[in-house]
Amino acid sequence: MKVLVTIKRVIDYSVKVRVKRDGSGIDFSGVKMSLNPFDEIAVEEAIRQKEKGKASEIVVVSIGEKDCQETLRAALALGADRAIHVKTSLETQPLGVAKVLKVLVEREKPELVILGKQAIDDDCNQTGQMLSALLNWPQGTFVSKLEVMKDKIRVVREVDGGLETLDMPLPAIVTTDLRLNEPRYATLPNIMKAKQKPLEEISAISLNVDLTPHLKTLHVKEPPKRKAGVKVKTVDELLDKLQKEAKVF
Amino acid sequence: MALLLIAEHTQNTLTPGTLATLTAAQSFSMPIHMVLFGKDCQKVAEKARSFKNVKKVLKVENPLLEHMVAEVATPTLMELAKDYDYILASSSTYGKNLLPRLAALLNVAQISDVVEIQGKDIFLRPIYAGNALAMVKSEDAIKILTIRATAFEKALPDLSKAAIETYAFKPPMGAVSTFVKMEESRSERPELTAASTVVSGGRGFQSKEKFALLEELADVLGAAIGASRAAVDAGFVPNDFQVGQTGKIVAPDLYIAIGISGAIQHLAGMKDSKVIVAINKDPEAPIFQVADYGLVGDLFVLLPELITKAKEILRRNKEKQ
Ligand SMILES: Cc1cc2nc3c(=O)[nH]c(=O)nc-3n(C[C@H](O)[C@H](O)[C@H](O)COP(=O)(O)OP(=O)(O)OC[C@H]3O[C@@H](n4cnc5c(N)ncnc54)[C@H](O)[C@@H]3O)c2cc1C
Ligand SMILES: Nc1ncnc2c1ncn2[C@@H]1O[C@H](COP(=O)(O)O)[C@@H](O)[C@H]1O
Fold it and tell me: Using an 8 Å Cβ cutoff, are B38 and B9 in contact?
């Protein structure tokens, strides 16, 4: 089973992002960039399936500027076999990304595509569902358990209200949730080895896909700040404040 | 101009998220058609018909729709979608699972987690775990939005009686997933995203057994229970208790965070609560930066005291009435 995994380069989850003064967007200067955590989980899952003898080859794909290649190398260091960078200087939005992925799926013919459920920059939570619709393949979103069976996969989905189990015929689309696995760290020898692994660069234009954003960001602002509260010393004081000031009792 | 609202329901009632989405829909001042998917939707359709601006309730009924599988509902939705300028659903896992599919097939963008409708094509939505708000303009003819429930009041029914119609189910072509089972995290407590009080616990509770202390507080306050990712990962509570960027978004009147450090991802899910209380032994914990009232100390000492004293206050309040 060939597996395609998508990789987005995003601001590291531990960074407190700042909005630019002029409201034009987020300040990227000097900010640490990483593999989107949900994509890291996707890569890990593909590797585990390979270790179990279920997956044959793991191809990772990223769409964006040149520096995506650094993130793809990180995925190769974790254990992916091969990388594809679809180069564009346009802002990537889920619809455009899904269209590019569709073309790549038709070319690479994987049986399973694993995406993150959500990119932690745009927080869209859309791309996997869009790709599934465009390919007319079954979708399993927000997956916290994946079992590869003979001619299908069984997934457990984290939904509001509990856990839902689905059987999915292959080929299929899966998006990862936090509890699918705990990603490993890349070892130094693997980081060295990753430098030799194949990384193909394709220009988005050559794929004939329209990546023009459908959404225009007019401006970006900071959310209203909560005013600083007070520290209370005792439980009595807390309950007193809750009754008299907050009136929640 | 007309708006289609994909309503999530429990067979008996519309979900709180759907009621909030209705309020967002009403702000467009155009006729609203609500579509209900399910095996049997008559009961909930009777309820759905009585809201301002709702002109039609469409039932799509089929045994295959007993459990929503996105691929199964998509062809019917595609048939329906052609007649609408706006398509809305709540940004629950239900809405998030469905709407991007529709958008892709209609070749339009989907706008996630809308918190403010600024105009017919301009919307405000949080990005980066709510650390920024983006004002976006849609360039598409059809606007497909998921609505963040905490940003809108829940719509109240009125005396109107919209027509209830049946809309033909269009079966899917090609391979689809099949529903196997649902393990519900049942609870007698109020639903997390709709509760007026939420008490949340984190890694500080140390174990599932000790987490039970939080349940006692929830019982006293009639609160829903929430949790940090760490508490869910450690197995103290089920997955759908997670509050945060990638869990549930809550905005109750009172949110009490206990043994939770206050990571960006957690704050993203609760910082719009009206009153926030934090109990943590670390005075530097970031949760105190958003808390209206912070109490520094050991939760295993403070929580039992809080439970006893809150119980006493509530008992006295009751006697006074
Ligand atoms: C992609 C991604 C998505 C995420 N999504 C979410 C999300 O949706 N929701 C979420 O919550 N997190 C999320 N996280 C995780 C988040 O970054 C934090 O790791 C998590 O919120 C920490 O949980 P915690 O506060 O319970 O644990 P910790 O950070 O370990 O904090 C425990 C706290 O308990 C206090 N404590 C310990 N013992 C006691 C005691 N006896 N009395 C009082 N206080 C005590 C400590 O001082 C500490 O502040 C996400 C992370 C990533 C990478
Ligand atoms: N530019 C991109 N390149 C590669 N993968 C992407 C890109 N954008 C989104 N994805 C994938 O789609 C998932 C969901 O993203 P989103 O729909 O933007 O929240 C991410 O976790 C990635 O796996």
Answer: yes
Beta-carbon separation of B310 and A19 below 8 A: no
Mean pLDDT across the stretch A94-107? 98
Q: Is residue A101 part of a domain?
A: yes
Q: How far apart are CA A86 and CA A96, in angstroms?
A: 12
Query: Which listed ligand is nearest to A7 at the C-alpha?
Result: 2
pLDDT higher than threshold 90 for residue B166: yes
Is the CB of residue B313 less than 8 Å away from at least one CB of chain A?
A: yes
Please list the residues that pair with B56 across neighbouring strands. B33, B163
Q: How far is CA B136 from the centre of its chain?
A: 22
Q: Do A239 and B306 touch (CB under 8 A)?
A: yes
pTM above 0.90, yes or no: yes
Question: ipTM of this complex > 0.90?
Answer: yes
**Is A70 within a domain?**
yes
For B243-269, b/e burial (b = at least 16 CB within 10 A) is: bbbbbbbbbbebbbbbbbbbbbbbbbb
Given its phi and psi angles, is residue B247 left (phi above 0), alpha (psi -120 to 50 degrees) or beta? beta
Interchain contact B63–A (C-beta under 8 A): no
Residue A171's domain spans which residues? 2-244
User: Pick from B208, B207, B210, B190: which is nearest to B199 by CA?
Assistant: B190
Instruction: Identify the CA nearest to B290 among candidates A238, A227, A222.
Output: A227
Residue A239 lies inside a defined structural domain of this protein: yes
Distances (CA, A) of A153 to A6, A170, B175, B180: 19, 7, 13, 12
CATH number, domain containing residue A174: 3.40.50.620
Structure tokens at B223: 């609160």
The answer to whether residue A249 sits within a structural domain is no
Contacts of A179 by beta carbon, 8 Å cutoff, 6+ apart: A144, A158, B232, B233, B239
pLDDT, one tens digit per residue, over B196-232 is 999 999 999 999 999 999 999 999 999 999 999 999 9
The reply to whether residue B109 touches residue A162, judged by beta carbons under 8 angstroms, is no
